[in-house]
Amino acid sequence: MTLHVLTGDALLENFPTGKLKGSIAISRECLVEGPVKANKLEDFWGIRETYLLATYPESDVNYQDEVAFEFNKLNDLKEGDEVYLWFEHDLFCQVNLWFTLSLLYDKGVSVYRVYPIIDDLEELWDGFGPMSPEELLKCYEQKIPLSTKDIQLGNNLWQAYSQSDNESLKTLASTPNKAFPYLREVCEAQLERPGRPQKVMKEIIDSGNTSFDEAFMEFSQQEGIYGFGDLQVKKIYDQLMQ
Question: What is the pLDDT of residue 40?
């Protein structure tokens, strides 16, 4: 069995389905916000569903059927199967990637990381978004096989993040690893929360960008490393505007 885990529905739009064999699972979580600490996976899904329904009541997403179900496809994997993890470099995607690797830990499957191949560092945090099916195929061709140590690192990163263990996260951030090329920068961005995003947004608003659309665009340019969507940025913006 071959499974491609995609970082969100947007990637599915241009995904070269006809050129790549295998099934697809879509990561629809935003584990970069809200509670993530749980002793059992069943409890974890319940905690996440409760938080997201309370935080985004206008959402019509059925959490169990459209979010948890996609991750549970990993339970069908057997030893020798192949998994391709299509995740970007920003914090939003990295946290989801760490969680996914924690689910794959000890499964005995072959795991590959597929990430955006971007030459212009100014566009680094744009990720897969602007890419055509042909460009996505090129990213796939440069996939990186993850060793047991790589998967262990991903699992350890998730444990540190989910337990709010900043000291461990800081230590893990210094681990040289080709599979996580911007790990130090991403962990630093996490360790500087919540202050850093709020500080940058306040500066943006104080400079005269008071409409949300303007503020969101400027925030994304300055702090693309967070990978926040409009929902996450709107929460920060609304708190400051109050």
Answer: 94
Task: Tell me how crowded residue 239 is: count the other CB atoms within 10 A of its CB.
Answer: 12
What residues form DSSP beta bridges with 146? Answer: 111
Enter the tokens of residue 39.
């002793």
Distance of alpha carbon 97 from alpha carbon 86, whole angstroms: 9
Q: Count of CB atoms within 10 A of residue 49's CB?
A: 16
Q: How far is CA 78 from the centre of its chain?
A: 24
Quote the CA–CA distance of 163 and 129 in Å, as a whole number.
31
* 103 neighbors 61 (Cβ within 8 angstroms): no
Strand order in the sheet with 110-114: 23-26, 2-6, 82-86, 110-114, 144-146
Q: What is the pLDDT of residue 218?
A: 96
Q: Which two tokens stand for residue 116?
A: 């955006």
Q: From 106, 181, 91, 196, select the one nearest 142 (Cα to Cα).
A: 181
* Nearest-10 Cα torsion for 239, 220, 98, 81: 130
What is d(CA 108, CA 127) in angstroms, rounded to the nearest whole number? 29
pTM, to two decimals: 0.96
Q: How far is residue 81 CA from its own chain's centroid?
A: 23
Q: What is the mean pLDDT of each run of 10 residues along the chain (242 residues)?
A: 96 95 97 96 97 92 96 94 97 98 95 92 86 96 96 97 98 92 96 97 94 96 96 95 90
Of 36, 32, 33, 54, nearest in space to 44 by CA:
36
In the chain, where does DSSP find H-type helix?
9-14, 41-55, 63, 69-72, 91-104, 133-141, 148-162, 166-172, 183-191, 195-206, 212-222, 230-241
